[in-house]
Amino acid sequence: MNHSDTLELSLQLLRQPSVTPVDHDCQNIMAERLAKIGFNIENMRFEDVDNLWARRGTTAPVFCFAGHTDVVPTGHLDAWNSDPFLPSIRDGKLYGRGSADMKTALAAMVVASERFVTNHPNHKGSIAFLITSDEEGPSINGTVKVIETLEARNEKMDWCLVGEPSSTHQLGDIVKNGRRGSLNAILTVHGKQGHVAYPHLANNPIHSASKALTELCDAVWDNGNEYFPATSFQISNIQAGTGATNVIPGTLKVTFNFRYSTEVTADILKQRVLEILDKHNLTYDIHWTLSGLPFLTPVGELVNAAKTAIKNVTGVETVLSTSGGTSDGRFIAPTGAQVLELGVLNETIHQINEHVNVADLEPLAEIYEQILVELLAQ
Fold it and tell me: Which of 113, 205, 295, 348 makes the best surface tag, with the fewest CB within 10 Å?
């Protein structure tokens, strides 16, 4: 069976069991291809995380492809219809862990760069790749550390295309030109443990906190704006009690998350939460973790290049969106680069039997190549 260039490289990457934070040679596979077309290869390892910074050219403007080689765990292997690390094609679909998120996009990036360099060897500016094996995990030693290294030596990018699976129903129908911020909290409400038959001798933190939690759930944090939906508050975990039926718990632990728009800040959200908790006279501790700031790339050179390329290749009029979870774009956007996420369909990401449409792979490479032509061709 004859495979396209993009499919062939996708299969090679999918055979690597690169579960976070293990890269399992994926970056070397990509680097070998890129080195052959004139990219300078720089491996950046921080603790147990492999990162790749590859660049062709030394001048501005800089266009960067960004992505990750790591994948989430497979789950129960017997639930898969085929080995998740032995990619297979059935009924026009390519199955394997990482097929959608996001090894096929990585393959398309490499192939697009090869074709572009062949046709435009004297292109203006520079093409770069920023690839990590720490996107699906804690994201501590991956993209954020590479960005810190680049900034320390005053190396900047103008445009960055992240290959996250952005499409919903057909290739290119959605591109992400921003992401909401993510703020996590662990709230511990303190009471007094006791016997359920003697509630006057105890203080039930579940009862004490219930009205405050209801108010937090019902609160309108903002109304969103043209680019972002309204800020969302979600409780993800509640833990209390010893497991016994006759013991009033002494503490209640609540984990919650804000996905927030540019209409508010993390500090504003924190302040409002504390005001609600204090209003209900709770005794509590709270620990905050800011996972990412919101970012937005307005319509400009990168967005226009992507929309034109998608229209030319697929005939689709793309829609800009900021929905969904966080991505490594949150580490790149603060540098001032225009950031856009564009990739395959996301309907099976992180799922059993993750797959993509084989017919989308070559068009994705063509879209990426046309974006390069639009921005860097002489």
Answer: 348
